[in-house]
Amino acid sequence: MTSVDLSRTVLRAVRRAVDDGELRVEPPERVVVTTPGGGGWGDYATNVALQLARPAGQPALRVAEILRPRLIGLDGIDDVLVTGPGFLNIRLRDTVSVDLVHDILRSGTRYGFVAAPHGPSVPPAPLPLHSPGDVRSLVVMDVVARLLRAQGVVVRTRCLDSSVAPSFADQWGVRVDGYGAAGSDTPDLGGLSSPPCSLQPRPCSGDPLFLGIDAGRWALLHPAPHDAVRLTGDHLVQRESNPLFRVRYAHARARAVLRNGSELGLAPRPGATGVADAALLAVLADHPRVLRRAAETRAPDRLTRHLVAVADAALPFLVTVLPRGDEKPSAAHRARLALAEAAGAVLAGGLSLLGIDAPDHL
Fold it and tell me: In what helix (H) or strand (E) does residue 44 lie, and over which residues does it extend?
């Protein structure tokens, strides 16, 4: 269950309380759910009771107690605890997390992709993506095209600057289908067409090639398209202060625990991990939504920020995966290995969409 799914579930509980006459209030258009803060109980929390208390003319704690029984048992919710002035802390059933990990392992690095339709159908109209010839525009266009294709969209890319040598795009791993203004080289698509989408991020001042292709692409993609690019050696340092390093290190650590688990005779098997994993499960569940929104908004920086969030949730979890000391291997360790493998798959898939290598060793 994603945070979006849970938000809809909480909103449904609010509407049921209104229909039953327990709450006299106009239901909100949306409900915000977040992961609990440090030491918080459950997998998610929401302040909807505090939000509704004043318009409902009731104390927030009373509103929370009205909503609690209407949430328990809905869509994979195991239990709900009212905390503080009226926060609803929600715990999901283990089967929800097990199903999520199964889904990720089944899809691998393509988790969150939309499958292309099967069978005879009218071919979709290709979406033309156009960009200037500067390196940032070309790399952003390339990643937007990858994101759109991952959502089942047919894309055709074009660099509007005919003076750009194809070898320049190839050097950066950019696929360009055509150069110059669209004209005679545009293929006959049977009358099907879509209006072109022009991508014009703020150009960077300087040549990012000194960073190498992987760090260079990250430097061009991590800022929002309207923000300036920072070309410094900070993108190369192997420290926690470097977001790219954290993402790639988390992937390498996930691969390492799988190798070490195999040496201990442990195979990944989704189940209850027995350790704090709510933050990691939440960001993994959110991955398909992030991919969809990054494609819809033509914003690769949404994906870079999400991968940093996955890495930051994965790194503290990964140190708990394998048995320590005299601890005997158990089903919980196999479940942790499965979740580690799922995290590694999401990180590898996301880096691949950015055109960045995901090393097994770092």
Answer: strand 44-46
Q: What are the structure tokens assigned to 170, written together?
A: 């190839």
Tokens for 35, please give them: 């992961």
Q: What strands lie across the sheet with 33-34, from one edge to the other?
A: 33-34, 44-46, 87-92, 77-83
- 86 vs 10: CA distance, rounded Å: 14
Determine the Cα–Cα distance for residues 4 and 205; give it in Å rounded to an integer.
39
What is d(CA 304, CA 294) in angstroms, rounded to the nearest whole number? 10
Per-residue pLDDT tens over the stretch 165-177: 899 999 999 999 9
The pairing of strands 33-34 and 44-46 is antiparallel
Question: If you ran DSSP here, which 8-state letter would residue 115 be given?
Answer: P
DSSP letters of 121-190? -PPPPPEEEEE-SSHHHHHHHHHHHHHHHHTT--EEEEES-TTS-HHHHHHTT---SEESSSSTTSPP-T
Q: Are β-strands 87-92 and 44-46 bridged in parallel, bridged antiparallel, or unpaired?
A: antiparallel
Closest-CA residue to 227 (of 140, 149, 147): 140
Mean pLDDT of all residues in 291-302: 95
Specify burial of residue 205 (Cβ count, 10 A radius: 0-12, 13-18, 19+): exposed
CB 174 within 8 A of CB 247: no
| Four-residue CA torsion sign, 204, 206, 209, 214 | negative
pLDDT confidence of residue 65: 95
Helix (H), strand (E) at residue 95 = helix 94-107
- Residue 127, strand partner residues: 155
Instruction: For the beta carbon of residue 223, count every other beta carbon within 10 angstroms.
Output: 17
Statement: residue 192 has pLDDT above 60: no
pTM: 0.76
Q: Residues 43-93: pLDDT tens digits?
A: 889 999 999 999 999 999 999 999 999 998 787 788 899 998 999 999 887
